[in-house]
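Help wanted!
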Amino acid sequence: MRFWLRSLQQSSIRYSSTLNQIIDKRLNSELDSIRQAGTWKSERIISTSQSAHIKVEHSTNDLLNFCANNYLGLANNSQIIQAAKNALDKYGSGLSSVRFICGTQTIHKQLEQRIAKFHQREDAILYISCFDANAGIFETLLKEQDYIISDELNHASIIDGIRLCKAKRLRYKHKDMSDLELKLQESFNDKNENIIRLIATDGVFSMDGSIAPLPDIRRLADKYKALIFVDECHATGFFGPTGRGTEEHFQMTGNIDIINSTLGKALGGAAGGYTTGPKALIDLLRQRSRPYLFSNTLPPSVVASAMKAIDLIENDTSLPGRVLENAKYFRTEMQTLGFQILGDSHPICPVMLGDARLASQFADEMLKRGIYVIGFSYPVVPKDRARIRVQVSAAHSKADLKRCIDAFAEVGRQFKVIK
Ligand code: PLP
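Answered by r_m:
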């Protein structure tokens, strides 16, 4: 008898016969097929704070963590924790409300102003996550007559956000500017002066660590009277010389029309997302964006921790440099060993393995050596493009990086991935 049935019988939970039938015929068979495909994702349970050095349940060993989006190592920064505690004391644990009813406090407005200033934009609007920011933007901005032109490898939240809007959808091949131009031409045949053509792209692609060619996209956007939307989740706070993101990396700060990003990665790692751009757009989002209108406001402690993270980044411009230097060292050493690392100069370093089972076994072997990395396989990445995505942080020391590289060398030889 299956474990879940046994535990159900021992508990007082009683499901209807319809639900039992659906669990048995549909859910369990889908779960079995995921297991059989070798793509089952299990969660390791961390028993410490998020950091470069962590512990997981059922192990007393210290693990070196290479799979967090904790790019600047701020997730357990003492100043950020203190700022969150102060906000808890002063503003309480939460607002029990959405923003427009009674969920806006002084610090929510302050953080929006800080974010807008950080990106050199007119205004910003907070969400409970960037997933929500992406769910809100397209439906609010675009109508039936408009066009949304999207990179095929955009993040799931952009894809879902686009599904919610009624605009005509065109998809261009990943970072392929000729294909983008074809799609723009298609939308340009529509001579309606009033339509919006919006190009949507990740600034940095989370699975590949590759960077959207924003200068080329800008050139095409101008030629075909299009706007540009960029998701900066994997760039804000650390990419570009002062951490302003992909547009700063390309020395084109202020040239992207709309930016969405997260507070849940480099900016303290708690949670939250935002849109920043022209005031009229932000005003419209406050009136119409459904995840903003119908979901709870960000907890004050989270707002305060993000604000402190921005303080730290603005006051210590060496922080972004540190993570990029670590990424460069890791990439160079791994490539010298013979590993194929995707992407450009970014701390997302995907070590390509191809086979899903190999990626998962490789990650298990790394764990035995005290290195916590995760194998990514279909449907998170395309079939036969399984990989281990290493994420380097400013919190890693050179010794941490070297331990990780040595373990890769050992396991790589064991599985004959390298010589
Ligand atoms: N966009 C990208 C590119 C992401 O990688 C993520 C998170 O993984 C999101 C959006 C969603 O961000 P959040 O965790 O703030 O919802």
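OP: Thanks! One thing I noticed: DSSP finds 16 helices and 13 strands in the chain.
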